[in-house]
């Protein structure tokens, strides 16, 4: 049975993997806080370029690296990019180095579709052959971490697999998704009725199964992949789907996109509004061609599970 270490095992994605893979492998949850309730968890303290990962990674076959500094809604750091780099770049590089010393065979890194920046074509389709152009500090740090891992990989026997998911949803999803659900559940009107741009999303069920494949598939070594449900939706359609399963009407006001752009300028959220109004889809052709993988779970089924489970 494979021995897999999962960093960030108390987070949304890390915890889901820890639970879902428990019967498939010998899972070692790797956490920061020694007070974690997870059985057999190994605490490593603060994550930075000085972190000693050795006690946690010794004896592992694979590491799935989910830990990191995520988007911060109300940033307090004077230099956000440096704060992201300490956790997302320096700590990740040190993890890879300690993994090599411990004889770990493979590291699967959870990056972000954000490293690509804005799509370069009108259809909004992101391809792996496109040049990454991150537009915020978080995404810059994720891309720098990817590059650091490739450099480490090139001078060692460690196999690195990089996965770039779009927005991930599911039971226990982070605040943004849950806030969206709560607003819809309360019947609060949203100005999304005329938002038709298609977006890629990925449910935790599909993400979990794809990451599992990345831990063992020989053809995945050294590769970078996107992952999604393969069922692109507009934010308005996603709202309608959630409202349907909440048993409430979706109160989506038909506000013209030009008005939304104007409002975005007034409140300093131009970038957020443009992302809402622009297509952002990921090309999954490499997943099928290289790994023979395609999403097994529909968006609707995963939304249902996300809303039914705590």
> What is the mean predicted local confidence, pLDDT?
92
Q: Termini, distance in Å? A: 30 Å
Globally, the shape reads globular
Order of helices and strands: EHEEHEHEEHEEHEEHEEHHHEHH
> What is the tally of beta strands?
13
Give the quaternary arrangement of the chains: single chain
β-sheet strand percentage:
5-15%
Largest sheet at a glance?
Answer: 7 strands, parallel
Tally of separate helices: 11
Strand order across the biggest sheet? 3-2-1-4-5-7-11
| Structural class assignment | alpha/beta
C-alpha Rg (nearest Å): 20 Å
**Unreliable residue runs:** none
Estimated helix fraction: 40-55%
What is this structure's SSE topology?
Elements: E1 3-7, H1 12-20, E2 26-31, E3 42-43, H2 54-57, E4 62-65, H3 80-102, E5 106-110, E6 125-126, H4 137-154, E7 159-164, E8 167-169, H5 175-185, E9 198-199, E10 201-203, H6 204-216, E11 224-226, E12 233-234, H7 235-246, H8 257-266, H9 270-277, E13 281-282, H10 285-291, H11 299-308
Parallel strand pairs: 1-2, 1-4, 2-3, 4-5, 5-7, 6-13, 7-11, 8-10
Antiparallel strand pairs: 9-12
């Amino acid at each position: 049975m494979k021995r897999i270490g999962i960093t960030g095992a108390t987070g949304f994605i890390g915890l889901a993997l820890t639970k879902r893979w428990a019967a498939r492998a010998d899972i070692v949850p790797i956490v920061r806080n020694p007070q974690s309730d997870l059985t057999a968890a190994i605490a490593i303290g603060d994550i930075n370029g000085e972190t000693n990962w050795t006690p946690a990674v010794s004896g592992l076959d694979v590491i799935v690296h989910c830990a990191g500094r995520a988007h911060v809604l109300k940033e307090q750091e004077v230099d956000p990019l440096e704060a992201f780099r300490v956790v997302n770049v320096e700590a990740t590089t040190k993890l890879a180095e300690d993994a090599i010393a411990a004889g770990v065979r493979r590291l699967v890194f959870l990056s972000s579709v954000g490293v690509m920046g804005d799509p370069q074509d009108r259809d909004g389709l992101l391809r792996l052959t496109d040049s990454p152009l991150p537009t915020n500090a978080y995404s810059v740090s994720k891309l720098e971490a990817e590059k650091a891992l490739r450099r480490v990989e090139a001078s060692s026997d460690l196999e690195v697999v990089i996965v770039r998911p779009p927005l991930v949803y599911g039971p226990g999803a982070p605040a943004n998704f849950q806030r969206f659900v709560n607003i819809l559940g309360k019947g609060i009107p949203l100005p999304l009725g005329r938002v038709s741009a298609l977006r890629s999303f990925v449910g935790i069920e599909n993400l979990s199964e794809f990451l599992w494949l990345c831990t063992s598939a020989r053809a995945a070594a050294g590769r970078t992949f996107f992952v999604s449900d393969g069922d692109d939706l507009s934010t308005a359609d996603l709202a309608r789907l959630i409202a349907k399963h909440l048993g409430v009407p979706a109160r989506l006001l038909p506000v013209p996109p030009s008005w939304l752009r104007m409002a975005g300028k007034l409140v300093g959220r131009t970038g957020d509004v443009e992302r809402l109004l622009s297509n952002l889809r990921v090309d999954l052709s490499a997943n099928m061609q290289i790994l023979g993988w395609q999403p097994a779970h529909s968006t609707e089924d995963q939304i249902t599970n996300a809303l039914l489970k705590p």
